[in-house]
């Protein structure tokens, strides 16, 4: 025989929900992995914050001052805090998605909490990228030469860094927002069906 139609209906109803859970889990894993790479960059940047270091420009007026090193450390610490917040929220959300029962997963309050946590995690990562980029501009000024010194190499490096990060964020943010809203709609559609 064909088996119990109610059982097969129940199984087919659970499949899209399980797929949504898997998508959430994979997205959260990817977010944590990316944050880990950025965190590594933070520590590389922190190792560059040394006072009295000469720039490659080899002109004393192009050497970075204490303000550059101080700003570098502050921005690196804020960047690290953002990536840490993003990763911890993503990990907590992954645990929630993994262990919650089907009824809890569909619950409107839990959907709102998941949506808020996902948005917090994504935006913390975005702000981490912004602070990391600002700190990398200070690394360029410390190593290559101050931007105020009109060092061509420093301007090229800073310009390329900012342009590439802006391009990356202009792709990442809209696609992530679209994925989050689509995911929320799919869960809501699944709830409305049942």
How would you describe what is shown here?
With 194 residues, the protein is mostly helical. The chain has one domain (14-193). 82% of the residues lie in helices and 0% in strands. The protein contains five helices and no strands. The protein has helices spanning 5-46, 66-99, 102-106, 108-143, 152-193. Helix 1 runs parallel beside helix 4 (108-143). The protein starts with a helix and ends with a helix. Mean pLDDT is 78; it is low at 6-12.
**Percentage of residues in DSSP E strands:** under 5%
- Extract low-pLDDT stretches: 6-12
Count, helices:
5
How many domains? The number is 1
What tags apply to this protein structure?
194 residues, 0% strand, transmembrane, membrane, transmembrane helix, PGG domain-containing protein
């Amino acid at each position: 025989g064909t088996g119990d139609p109610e059982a097969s209906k129940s199984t087919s109803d659970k499949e899209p929900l399980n797929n949504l859970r898997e998508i959430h889990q994979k997205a959260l894993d990817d977010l944590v992995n990316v944050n880990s790479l950025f965190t590594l960059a933070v520590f590389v940047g922190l190792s560059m914050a040394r006072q009295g270091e000469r720039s490659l420009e080899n002109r004393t007026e192009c050497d970075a001052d204490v303000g550059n090193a101080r700003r570098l450390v502050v921005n690196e610490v804020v960047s690290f805090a953002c990536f840490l917040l993003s990763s911890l929220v993503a990990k907590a959300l992954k645990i929630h998605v993994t262990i919650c029962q089907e009824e809890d997963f569909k619950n409107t309050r839990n959907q709102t909490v998941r949506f808020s946590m996902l948005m917090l995690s994504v935006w913390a990562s975005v702000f981490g990228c912004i602070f990391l980029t600002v700190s990398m501009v200070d690394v360029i000024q410390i190593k290559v030469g101050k931007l105020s010194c009109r060092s061509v190499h420093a301007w090229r490096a800073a310009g390329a860094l900012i342009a590439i990060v802006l391009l990356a964020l202009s792709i990442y943010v809209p696609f992530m927002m679209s994925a989050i809203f689509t995911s929320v709609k799919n869960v809501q559609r699944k709830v409305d069906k049942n």
